[in-house]
Amino acid sequence: MKQIFKVGLLVTLNFLLLTSLHSQTKQIQFLSGTDAAHTVQWDFFCTAGRNSGEWKKIQVPSCWEQQGFGNYNYGRDYKTNGKNFRFYDEKGMYKYQFKVPAAWKGKNIHLVFDGSMTDTEVKINGKSAGEIHKGAFYRFKYDISSLLNYDKPNTLEVTVSKMSSDASVNNAERLADYWVFGGIFRPVFLEATPKQYIDYVGIDAKHGGSFAMKVSAKGLTQNATIVTTITDANKKVVATVKTPLAKTADHVIVNSTVANSQSWTSETPNLYTATVVLQDAAGKKLYELSEKFGFRTIEVRRGQGIYINGTQVKFKGVNRHCFWPETARSLSKEQELADVLLLKEMNMNAVRCSHYPPDNYFLQLCDSLGIYVIDELAGWQKAYSTQAGAPLVKEMVLRDLNHPSIVFWSNGNEGGHNKELVDDYAQYDFSNRTVIHAHHRPGNAINGIDCNHYEDYYSTEKILNDSLIYMPTEMLHAQDDGGGGAAMEDFWNLHWRSQRSGGVFIWALVDEAVVRTDLNNVLDANGLNANDGILGPHREKEGSYYALREIFSPIQLKLPAQLPSTFNGSIELDNRFHFTNTKQCTFYWALVDFSKPFDRFDGYIVKQKGTITAPDIAATKQGTLQLQLPADYKNYDALIIVARDPYGKEIYKWTSEIKTKQLQLNGFVTVKNDEATVKETDTVYSITGGDVTIVLDKKSGNLVTTKNSSNDYVLSFNNGPVLVKGTASVVSSKTYKEGNNAVVEFMYSGDLHFVKWKMNASGWTTMEYEYAVTGDAPFTGISFNYPENYVISSRWLGKGPVRQWKNRMAGTPVNVWQNLYNNTHTGYSPVVYPEFKGYYGDVTWMELNTVEGKLYIASPDNGLFVRLFDFYALSAAAKPHPEIPVGNISFLDCIPPIGTKLATGLTTNTRVYGPMSELNHVSGSKKRTLYFYFGLPKTTDSKENYSRPAVDNVF
């Protein structure tokens, strides 16, 4: 009996202790779910559109359109309806019952909304909680202490109006170029604090260890003391300071210094924790909170650049909306993390939170993983009024002020700047960050920074030579397959070398195609309006993702595409880190053999590998990486070099071919000594070698048909070669023997000089040709036809995995790749990446698998581009895409650049985006050899039994 009493007493004492501890900290009770993946069901009534007019259930947080209610609206819709915004208005009425602990009686209790679109009216137990909140993307709260029942359930009623009663709120948030939604889309929760508590702290921690903090206390009934304890990531106490606080003061400033502090940067995201305790005069703890922060100093040095911790930094950034196709503006924590990891994968160091503040969890991830952030007040191209905007600035800054990742406040976008609000930011931001204007018109520069949008390469040069810091907060609009990584190599090199550059921010991270719950869940990007991403709607990796990963790599290796025969192991290295010495990184080499056309895997197999001594090259400096390769390195297909950052994350992987393409074709393109034959009629030549017969038209010189007798394959590959640029007419033809090979040769007038078809008894057909084109051309080479709907897949040794443009070759290393046929149009269902159709460079061999059989193409020459079919490339009103060659399978020696939707003259004037975006300047003759096999080649070569290696683990 005594033992039971002791146990009961212990449990009671622990409960009292736990209650006491909780009473000294902020207690949280969620009424909704915590994110889009963890929701709570509330009662819901929608006033218009789908499922309206009756009470139903809805998941909270959510956008109600994605729950099957109301109507879909894209921001541009309002323009088509003039000023009648109310046409699009819907209201959502929410009800939810909840209980609060009896122990909360006597505390301050706030009801907190993290985001609600748009006007939000709140009642507790039938009584108003306060004024209607206007503004969708901000944390707002009500003191509901006096409205609560502590002995029975409480009823929460929320009415959310999709359109605001304040016209300036609609202008700033909803008259925009993105989907607009309705509903409580971020969490709702209760906060309980003691009557005497700390409302918030504002931290200003500088590089070098100086620490200052504004502590705002409420409800003090006596003089108090603030005890601040600073701990590092290992929970080691590095500083403690006591600061008196008079009961008549609403705040106090705490000052301290941390010796040997580790600074916060995107490369070194070192975080500390400040634990702040409010004590009464007797030393009793009244309240406690903890806040993470980082030591870092941000300076805008006018006419020089942006400096972090005394070092000039250039942002490699992108614009991001909070968006997921199924849940719209509501996101899960896993999706937030995925976006930050994708930024890091692309070697970006910055993000602009357009066009509104993001979820708080996203900022926490940027703090801990190292991403510089521009936090933005909404205002797409029109601004909040001062009356509407002032409380929203306060809400944004007070929620976000201690995130070390935030380097600037953006006071709206593209003309949506209320300059009367600029001074408001410093009222709440104790560290007094710089305020910028993300704008697209000259003359809106502020605080020494010009953020003008969508300048071309040459106007960018001019601006960078002017007096202001230039940091375009939108550039290279990535609509469809244009912009983004295309032309960025020229732009980034220009910004990297310019003193007054603050870096760049691309528009935009993802294609914002929403899953339409009213249209059988199809993806809808609102025509061309919302498919602006480097990534697809579900973060599929588009071509620009791969290009930017290489272009933004902080380690730049000048590794040639083909390793020279005189290679001595020395490779030039440009260290483009801002703070990291290359000796902190790790480097590896591997000698690899590519899989062969008949092997069972794609990619390569590592034959030998080793480490490379990391060179001592300071940040932003140049040097060399020295390899010690084995003596037999020339026996392998390619050299691969991998660089990893100080945390072990792969920065990039470079590939350089060692063997020539002719050597790599050994054992694939076979030769037999038996005799090939040729037959001639009045109209055609028929050449036969082994099982393969090709028929050539005498008049045009074109391939008519092909057949493989071993399996009765008839491949509809024909109607070529045709010059894609230039003219050609057959003037003569002849047939002859070249050893045992049968040859048909055509001579032409015009720009095509000759085409020589040569058949070997193995069935392999060689086509040699020469042409000459002079001038500026989007492409040069030859084309054939093949029915697109017959194609199943392709497999090739060449650049990949995505298609290329002349100004977007980066990020596509040579390897063996494979792709199933698809007809992806960015932003539309079905979305399959990589796209199948397009230009593919540096091809050694390609296998097209078709319903008629297999077609093999190869070349021993460098620089072959293969174009596959007509493809959706860049949509624009005047011209749907850059010019595409005649025919639909082309063998090219150069390919066109791609522009953006904002190029002057649309896709016809890509040259304004820099040297790589100019048309090809061609002159002189070009000779090339192609090998074809129509059907499945027979081979008696023994093949090594490769098993596909785990490529990610080979280093």
From TrEMBL:
EC numbers listed for it are 3.2.1.23
Q: Which Pfam families match?
A: Glyco_hydro_2 (PF00703), Glyco_hydro_2_C (PF02836), Glyco_hydro_2_N (PF02837)
Taxonomically, the superkingdom here is Bacteria
Sorted alphabetically, the keyword list is: Calcium, Glycosidase, Hydrolase, Signal
Root EC class: hydrolase
Domain Glycoside hydrolase family 2 immunoglobulin-like beta-sandwich per the UniProt entry, residue ranges:
207-296
What are the Glycoside hydrolase family 2 catalytic domain coordinates in residue numbering? Answer: 299-516
Query: Subunit structure, per the record?
Result: Monomer.
Record's protein name: Beta-galactosidase
